[in-house]
Amino acid sequence: MAHLQGLVIAAHGRHYLIQATINGEVQKLHCVTRGKKSDVSVGDVVEFALTSKNQGVIEAITPRKTLLYRSDQYKSKMLAANLTQLLIVVATEPSFTDDLVSRALVAAESSGIKPHLILNKVDVTESLPKARERVGLYAKLGYPVHEVSAKADPEGTRMTMENLMRGQSTILIGQSGMGKSSLINLLIPDAEIATREISAALDTGKHTTTFTRLYQMDENSYVIDSPGFQEFGLHHLSEGMLERAFPEFLPHLGHCKFYNCHHHAEPGCAILAAVKEGSIAAMRHELFEQLVHESAQTVGY
Ligand code: GDP
Ligand code: ZN
């Protein structure tokens, strides 16, 4: 029998929920991988063979356009495949962490995924000026910032988000409390029902709601939510990959005195000079050094 093709919409261990069109009808099938392998990610397009009416075995993964990693015990593990954009949700209140924002930006840059910042809760006017000033750093680096209020302006927020997400494969991430669930619920009104269905289909257990899942918005747009998500996996990035993930470093690369400069304390370092003179934020250079340190401590994936 010819192989069928489908989109992986949820994963739990070696169990996957695949959405596929069979005989002109959109179906969801419970698939497993062969053997003990679980190298399939949500967002993958896979070839599979049917083993019964609504079950199958994954035979092959079609080449990925992008792959984003999460961190798991100091290793980078797959988070989602074929994404085109990453929306980082921050809020006026509670205040967000720059370290998490920059790590997300590095993850996106190194995977070839376009990042945007969503500043939510702009209705909290007393915290707005400070929040605007803080996201201003990222806007200056060239990252688009969009202001929304899921609570005070749900219609406007939905329109902004839908425009942004049309034709894209998006993942939404944010620290707890920023309003990510509120935004997902605005975009996918039946998200909770869908989650329960997926959980039942994959037999994840009643209380497991932390698996990564994909919601189709229209034929060409989908959004991935990963409620259990903690941290991006950046361990596999080499020093060279890390420097290129900081756009403000790019004009200075190749201008250091030493061709193999680590931008740590070397004389004649163009990056350090830019930090001193204020055109590179000290906070961003510190994170670069921290990430180099972290990746040196782990080997491989
Ligand atoms: P999550 O932890 O990121 O998923 O955040 P939630 O969506 O659960 O939101 C956290 C809290 O912020 C909840 O009490 C929401 O009602 C509130 N919240 C979400 N969006 C807004 C907003 O636009 N304005 C205000 N004032 N509160 C909001
Ligand atoms: Zn240097």
From TrEMBL:
Binding site for Zn(2+): C256, C261, H263, C269
Note describing how the cofactor binds: Binds 1 zinc ion per subunit.
Domain (CP-type G) ranges: 72-232
EC number of the protein: 3.6.1.-
NCBIfam families for the chain: ribosome small subunit-dependent GTPase A
Quaternary structure note: Monomer. Associates with 30S ribosomal subunit, binds 16S rRNA.
Cofactor requirement: Zn(2+)
HAMAP family, A to Z: GTPase_RsgA (MF_01820)
Its biological purpose: One of several proteins that assist in the late maturation steps of the functional core of the 30S ribosomal subunit. Helps release RbfA from mature subunits. May play a role in the assembly of ribosomal proteins into the subunit. Circularly permuted GTPase that catalyzes slow GTP hydrolysis, GTPase activity is stimulated by the 30S ribosomal subunit.
This protein's name: Small ribosomal subunit biogenesis GTPase RsgA
Pfam families linked: RsgA_GTPase (PF03193)
The organism's place on the tree of life at top rank: Bacteria
Gene3D superfamilies from the UniProt entry: Nucleic acid-binding proteins (2.40.50.140), P-loop containing nucleotide triphosphate hydrolases (3.40.50.300), Probable gtpase engc, domain 3 (1.10.40.50)
Top EC group: hydrolase
Coiled coil: none
Binding site for GTP: N120, K121, V122, D123, G174, Q175, S176, G177, M178, G179, K180, S181, S182
Species: Undibacterium aquatile
